[in-house]
Design goal:
Chain A: This is NADH-ubiquinone oxidoreductase chain 5. Chain A: It is an enzyme of class 7 (translocase). Chain A: Pfam families: NADH5_C (PF06455), Proton_antipo_M (PF00361), Proton_antipo_N (PF00662). Chain A: GO terms for molecular function: NADH dehydrogenase (ubiquinone) activity; NADH dehydrogenase activity. Chain A: Its EC number is 7.1.1.2. The complex is a heterotrimer of chains A (about 625), B (about 180) and C (about 100). Chain A is mainly α. In chain A, about 70% of the residues lie in helices and about 5% in strands. Chain A folds into three domains: about 210 residues, no CATH class; about 210 residues, no CATH class; about 50 residues. The longest helix of chain A is centred in the first third of the chain and has 32 residues. Chain A is globular and about 115 Å long. Chain B is mainly α. Chain B folds into two domains: about 110 residues, Four Helix Bundle (Hemerythrin (Met), subunit A) (Up-down Bundle); about 55 residues, no CATH class. Chain B is about 75% helix and about 0% strand. Chain B is built from eight helices and no strands. The N and C termini of chain B lie far apart (about 65 Å). Chain C is mainly alpha-helical. Chain C has a single domain, classed as Helix Hairpins (Orthogonal Bundle), CATH 1.10.287. Classes of the chains: A mainly alpha (about 625), B mainly alpha (about 180), C mainly alpha (about 100). At the B-C interface, helix 1, helix 2, helix 3, helix 4 and helix 5 of B face helix 1, helix 2 and helix 3 of C.
């Protein structure tokens, strides 16, 4: 079993190599078969691995395989070793399975694109890097995957590089995540200096003994690691890159910027839970960051008009929920929300991609409308995804995970009523903007002509994901209903269980409140965008509300803030130093040598006689030295 | 033998002075032959008859013939002599004469400074020359063979009459003009 | 006869050749002067060999001879070529390698 572990990341790598080296000589069919095929095989291998894992749990709770020694310097040893435990397995399953569906979808979605091979090559490389990230046994290898997914994200956001805006979006994503990555690298250095190792199991074992709980050292390490996770997972204040990242093709948004890469931060925090638990302060920060993010992004999602930007802000907001869950100590709830979110958000992006494709690349939701009857498959699948996002009770996966997060936001050790209240407001907002999106896009009258319905390659992944969006939540039920805990049983072999506060209020009341919030959100959306649209028109007359709307629309003006705080001072300083003061030294040296050259070039007059005389004078001089010395 | 040496030295030096002051190339070459013959006599007086013979055959024979051929092919007659006369102003001699005089002075001082010994009067055994030539100096003989080969090929290549061909730098210069 | 007297003769011949190289403008005369200088060096070698009664000086003269032969053949070929291309034998006009850098 352990021997075939390497196949899972190796297969997409093989696909990448084939497509990048020979891609231009292959037909589109072959490219699609290779590109999607390797990921599908990896998915099958992962499922087989998972079945084995669940039937006969390995010793120590993890499969480990060391492929080769990567580097060995003094007392620093780093091997290329893979490790799969329950937490990695959840991520592995999502990456390969959702990845495979998205690859199949892409085969249909990208069929008219020139750079078919480049697209699949980048996607395969991404899958490979992401698998290395979650399978890594040590943090150095994980960092390799971490940077690898950042690179692929950059390549794929800027996939249509002829448009300047896409390239700028790619650059922005790259720069901003780099801030987090640098913080994370410093955190890794600190960890290594303190513990002398970067192997994840050794860190988990050694950290509680080595560090004093709540000491400033462990706090700074945890904060730096958290900053890395915040950059990758687009948490406030490093969230501004994700809405712009929607410049990439829709499957890219689904795979990288919804289902997998942006959850790498969640994975990092969960993976390093041993470190984070030593610093309750950082845990609180994590929860607060998550809460702030979900509120900020939710508010922005309410007023966006671009279908993909709505989904992007909603992704940020859902990531906020995950961070909130991790921060309050509800580790498995955070991972569970990641699990369900991966399905329904991938589904929403893919369905949105199908809508955009059928409407001649129209992104604005107010130019859509009436698609309910024209694109029935897309409509029903989108409906399933949207219901899961809004967390409609009992029938959707999103309900089970979000309910758990909400419940623990109050009742878990690090929870507090305020966090719960914010999360509840977030649930209301989520339900509201999801309803708005559904009503505007699929009901009402048609505003743009539908060119072609998506083909079977595109609809089948949608249907499978829609089914999963509904049923994926059934593996984990609340404690007071049914009490099924399949998911947390598996994950809690790795992650610590939740410690609940005493006294705990009744869970049923909280669920009822959450349901009421969700339903009232849906009803508000229905009221404003279907039943009585004149209210919105009336609000547009009020200047204060329009100002608020613009504030939200621009993403709480974070971009403008960063522009004023960082970009303009930097441009100012560079303008000051346009002449480059330090360069003066070098130009001075250059001009000195030019001057010397001018003097010495007089001696090169091209005349043989001068040269002979020079030689003669030299001989006379040397002979004269014989008398002196 | 001493008289032979001194007389031939005087002849060689006088002939050399004539060589570097002549206007006509052919006259200079004739004095050069005399100079070579004088040097050959010096060799003879030093007890080196073999190199004296080679001096006459190769220097006075072959190399002079080469020079004469070139002078003939370039057809350097009266015009070039007039040209030389114009070039040979006394003032062109002043600077080089001073410099070379200084050099000669230094050389003489250095040569006489190191003490002296009477020259032995016996001849070096002729057999010794080829033995050491093909013994310890065999590598140098090989290298000399390369040098002569390169000289022949180089002369044949450079001396070929081809159409006027300028180096690319000179060509640009010409175009610019 | 003292050993330095031969070397003095060689030095005088060498300096005369050098003077010729410095004063003459015709390439053929410069080549002739170079031959004189090489010859003077040969005299010095042979004198040194005779002083110690060893054959090495004469062997060196043989090498100088071979070198002079190849030098003259290449040099004269160059003279032909120069005359053919520039229609002059004046070395002061053959100064195309002058560095004309303006500062």
């Amino acid at each position: 079993m352990q021997e075939v572990l390497f196949l899972i990341p190796a297969l997409p790598l093989v696909g990448f190599l084939i497509l990048s080296l020979a891609g231009r000589h292959l037909s589109k069919q072959v490219i699609a078969v290779v590109g999607a095929g390797v990921v599908c095989i990896a998915a099958i291998a992962t499922i087989w691995l998972g079945i084995n894992f669940l039937q006969i749990p390995p010793e120590n709770g993890a499969y480990t395989v060391t492929l080769w020694r990567w580097m060995s310097v003094a007392n620093f040893n780093c091997s290329f070793s893979l490790r799969v435990d329950a937490l990695s397995l959840v991520f592995l399953f999502v990456i390969t399975f959702v990845g495979a569906l998205i690859h199949i979808y892409s085969a249909g979605f990208m069929k008219h694109d020139r750079d078919y091979a480049r697209f699949f090559a980048s996607m395969n490389l991404f899958v490979c890097a992401m698998l290395i990230l979650v399978m890594a046994d040590n943090l150095v290898l994980m960092y390799l995957g971490w940077e690898g997914v950042g690179l692929c994200s950059y390549l794929l956001i800027g996939f249509w590089y002829e448009t300047t805006a896409n390239v700028q979006a790619a650059n922005k994503a790259f720069y901003i995540t780099r801030i987090g990555d640098t913080a994370m690298a410093i955190g890794l250095f600190l960890l290594f200096r303190e513990l002398g190792t970067l192997d994840i199991p050794s860190i988990q074992n050694a950290a509680p003994e080595h560090f004093v709980k709540n000491s400033s050292l462990i706090t700074s390490i945890a904060l730096l690691l958290l900053a890395g996770g915040m950059g990758k997972s687009a948490q406030v204040p490093l969230q501004t890159w994700l809405p712009d990242a929607m410049a990439g093709p829709s499957p890219v948004s689904a795979l990288i910027h919804a289902a997998t890469m942006v959850t790498a931060g969640v994975y990092l925090v969960a993976r390093m839970h041993g470190v984070f638990q030593l610093s309750p302060f950082v845990m609180n920060i994590t929860a607060i960051v998550g809460a702030v993010t979900l509120l900020v992004a939710g508010c922005s999602a309410m007023v966006q008009t671009d279908i993909k930007r709505i989904l992007a802000y909603s992704t940020i907001s859902q990531l906020g929920y995950m961070f909130l869950a991790l921060g309050v100590g509800a580790w498995s709830a955070g991972i569970f929300h990641f699990f369900t979110h991966a399905f329904f958000k991938a589904l929403l992006f893919l369905a949105a991609g199908a809508v955009i494709e059928s409407l001649h690349h129209e992104h604005g939701i107010f130019k859509m409308g009436g698609l309910k009857n024209k694109l029935p498959v897309v409509f029903y699948t989108f409906l399933a995804g949207a219901a899961a996002l809004a967390a409609l009770p009992l029938v959707t996966a999103g309900f089970f995970s979000k309910d758990q997060v909400l419940w623990y936001a109050w009742s878990a050790e690090g929870g507090s009523p305020l966090l719960w209240l914010i999360a509840l407001a977030g649930a209301f907002i989520t339900a509201f903007y999801t309803t708005r999106l559904m009503l505007v896009v699929f009901w009402g009258e048609a505003k743009t002509h539908v060119s072609e319905a998506p083909g079977r390659l595109m609809t089948w992944p949608l249907i499978i994901l829609a089914l999963l969006s509904v049923v994926a939540g059934f593996i984990e039920w609340p404690h007071n209903l049914l009490h099924v805990t399949l998911f947390s049983d598996v994950v809690q072999k790795v992650l610590p269980p939740v410690t609940e506060k005493e006294p705990i209020p009744s869970e049923a009341i909280f669920q009822l409140i959450a349901v009421v919030a969700t339903l009232s959100g849906v009803y508000t959306g229905y009221l404003l965008y279907k039943k009585n649209t004149s209210i919105v028109a009336k609000w547009k007359q009020v200047p204060a509300l329009v100002g608020l709307r613009n504030f939200f629309f621009s993403g709480w003006r974070f971009d403008q803030l960063y522009h004023t705080l960082f970009v303009r001072p930097f441009v100012f300083v560079t303008n000051l130093n346009k002449q480059d003061v330090i360069d003066k030294i070098y130009t001075g040296i250059v001009s000195m040598f030019q001057w010397l050259n001018g003097i010495f070039s007089v001696s090169q007059d091209g005349s043989v006689r001068t040269y002979v005389i020079s030689v003669l004078i030299g001989i006379i001089f040397i002979l004269a030295l014989q008398f002196i010395l | 033998m001493n008289y032979l040496f001194y007389i031939s030295s005087i002849v060689a030096i006088a002939a050399t002075v004539m060589v570097i002051t002549r206007h006509q190339p052919v006259h200079a070459l004739l004095y050069l032959v005399v100079s070579f013959l004088g040097v050959a006599m010096i060799f003879l007086s030093l007890g080196a008859p073999f190199v004296a013979t080679l001096e006459i055959i190769l220097y006075a024979g072959a190399i002079i013939v080469l020079f004469i051929f070139v002078v003939m092919m370039l057809n350097l007659g009266r015009e070039s002599a007039i040209q030389e006369r114009q070039w040979m102003q006394p003032k062109t001699w002043i600077g080089p004469s001073i410099l070379t005089a200084i050099l000669l002075g230094e050389l003489l001082v250095l040569l006489t400074m190191g003490g002296s010994a009477p020259m032995p009067q016996q001849t070096v055994d002729l057999k010794k020359i080829p033995l050491s030539l093909y013994g310890e100096y065999v590598i140098a003989v090989e290298l000399t063979g390369f040098l002569l080969m390169a000289g022949i090929v180089g002369a044949a290549h450079i001396g070929r009459h081809k159409k006027k061909y300028l180096h690319r730098f000179l060509k640009q210069e010409e175009e610019a003009v | 006869m003292q050993s330095y007297s031969v070397l003095v003769v060689a030095a005088i011949l060498f300096v005369l050749g050098l003077l010729g190289v410095l004063t003459r403008r015709n390439i053929i005369f410069i080549l002739i002067s170079i031959e004189i200088m090489l010859n003077a060096a040969g005299v010095a070698f042979v004198a040194a060999g005779a002083r110690w009664g060893q054959p090495d000086g004469q062997v060196m003269f043989l090498f100088i001879l071979a070198m002079a032969a190849s030098e003259v053949s290449v040099g004269l070929a160059l003279v032909m070529q120069v005359y053919h291309q520039h229609k002059t034998l004046d070395v002061s006009k053959l100064n195309n390698l002058k560095d004309d850098i303006e500062v």
